[in-house]
Design brief:
Order of helices and strands: HEHEHHEHHEHEHHEEHH
Largest sheet: 7 strands, mixed
Low-confidence stretches: none
Strand content: 15-25%
Shape: globular
Radius of gyration: 20 Å
CATH architecture of one domain: 2-Layer Sandwich
């Protein structure tokens, strides 16, 4: 964790470039992992240098919310902390365990309801293919069921891409993990969208997605499902696989 003195130096430098900044993003893996007191201290420091700031967004894990009470979350919200990007990736217990996320589907519901109660907006990530070959349907159904019980402002969709040095890559090399095919992933996304029952912006337009698409649900549900079906029907598995094979980075 960056010492408070360094935090203040960074804020001082930022203020020299953007003294009237109204929204800032705390960088780092999961800044929300800090304790309530540390988050509060740093949020208060922001206003010493950026008095016009209204929103401080950051990455978070479901685990980071567990040790914070609702009254503490409300206080952090009143200090401007809002817009947590949560890398859920799934709402299916089997898949969460496979990915070593360290929490369950019930935890997602319980902790995000605390955020709802505190008035803190949050965003989810869903990852097609993460459950492995033959498990996409189950992952999509269970994840949509869980996500529909809370209120993410938007959901970003990525598709699993294995790179050397990652645990799942090594598991795939040894045969412990069998990656899902490309058409199965698109079908998984179809099922996920079909079973989402909430108003939410969905962005499946990162490089990891063979077919980039965005939608506002439920308004665009049938349109995007039809578009995805057209890709399944008209593009070969080989062409899709070649696209993923040629991905060297997702940045």
């Amino acid at each position: 964790m960056t010492p408070l003195s360094e935090w203040r130096e960074d804020l001082k430098e930022l203020a020299s470039y953007q003294p009237y900044a109204r929204r800032i993003y705390w960088t780092g893996a999961n800044p929300f992992v800090m304790s309530y007191e540390n988050l509060k201290e740093r949020a208060l420091a922001v206003y010493d240098y950026l008095p016009e700031c209204q929103t401080m967004a950051m990455f978070s894990s479901i685990r980071d919310i567990k040790n914070k009470k609702v009254w503490q979350l409300r206080r952090l919200r009143s200090l401007g902390i809002n817009g947590l990007s949560i890398g859920t990736e799934s709402g299916d217990d089997f898949t969460l365990k496979l990915a070593n996320k360290g929490y369950t589907a019930k935890d997602i519901i319980d902790q995000c309801r605390k955020l709802d109660e505190a008035g803190i907006e949050y965003y989810f990530v869903y990852m097609t293919g993460l459950a492995g070959k033959g498990n996409g349907y189950r992952n999509a159904i269970n994840s949509a069921k869980v996500f529909s019980k809370v209120n993410p402002r938007f959901i970003s969709v990525d598709s699993l891409t294995l790179f050397e040095g990652t645990e799942l890559f090594e598991m795939a090399q040894s045969g412990e993990f069998v990656p899902a095919g490309e058409k199965e992933r698109i079908k998984e996304l179809q099922i996920f969208i079909q079973n989402l029952h909430l108003k939410v912006h969905l962005f499946a337009n990162s490089l990891s997605n063979f077919y980039p698409t965005t939608a506002y649900l439920p308004r665009d549900k049938e349109i995007v499902i039809s578009e995805l079906q057209n890709i399944i029907d008209t593009v070969s598995e080989e062409e899709m696989a070649e696209y993923r094979k040629n991905l060297k980075t997702l940045g």
